[in-house]
Amino acid sequence: MSHVDVARHGYFSFSTTNKFQAEDETLAGPKTLREWELKDLHPSYNTKAMTSLRLTFTEIDELFLRGFRRSLTLLDLISEDYRGDWKRNLIISPTDAEDFERHIQFGRLSSEVSNIDYFQDQAEIRFWCLATEFLVLENEGFPGGQVFDPNTNGWRACPVPDVHASGFSSRILEIEKVASHVPQQVIAAMSSISHLSAPWNVIRHLRKRTDLLDSLFERTHRPVSADQHLISLAAQIDQSWPKNVPKNETFRPSGIVVKAYPKGKGLSIPTPTIMMITTISSVISISLAVVSYLKATPQPGTPQDADFFSLFQSSVLQISSIWPMMLTLRKTRLNKLASIYIWVLVVFGLLTAAVAVPLYILVHTGWSTLFSAASGVSQGFVTLQLVYVVAA
């Protein structure tokens, strides 16, 4: 459900916006507690692995329920003028919160509720949708949203929710910690019932739950370090899915992946050729610089020389070319060792280009040629490394 839908209706309501209700009714499990009581118990599915997975999901139920309860505390914060308070858009209906709590209490390993009934219960999906949306809105609010302000008789922007970052992170990390066991337990649970008929309803509903968890983590995950990457629960399940249990679709929905730097034959195939050309050019450049040094007059030059202005403009161009490369190299897909080498070349190129000009005036005109050539060579290899990044 989008933020716009939430803002329009005031309370979270899934009566018309639940994205899963449009699916085939054959997938919808028992919708009421009474229906749960009347269904067969399917004892064949009450394996130890299925029960373990169910326990993990009930832990997540409890964590989501805490969010429902926090929502109810916002009722006391709403001002008397209901129209002008943005907090009303963060509130979950008290009826939904009560229903969810009763649902959890009744379904927690109740002898009247079998594992398969618990896993294919559509009400659980509805409550999970509600809880994940609330967690996101609790932290982010309604960016770009507006509410009517009766004091000014106009519209004003919704403020950012007053939620402490560390407190919110701890809530998400707690859910992530419990959910980290889901892939392994799903695989074990499916393997434990592989001898039974394909439990399509169970698989479809498990996919919905992992999809909701992945969506929540993608929007709220805060990595501890830059190298930390969030691994999808659904991707882990697909990778380790038991071969003796058929499934007609993957847990992670397939989509079109568009690469910022697509790998094409025009870049990837001639890369070794580019490397060879760059190396040969560098050797020739350094060789000519050495010849220039040997043939140069062993004395400093003057700012009035024509060669001085040629050297000066060359150094300016080299520095202005290396500077954008520094900005580009800040975020690349290079490994750590290659990144260190490239940064060394970048700094070396900047220094040699800057030092070449004073060397011409103060020391020896031949030295300035050598330093200028060294700067050009380092710049060439930095550019070559960027070509590798694009071609990867």
UniProtKB/TrEMBL annotation:
The chain crosses the membrane at residues 273-296, 341-363, 369-391. It comes from the Eukaryota. Keywords: Membrane, Transmembrane, Transmembrane helix. This is Uncharacterized protein. It comes from Mollisia scopiformis.
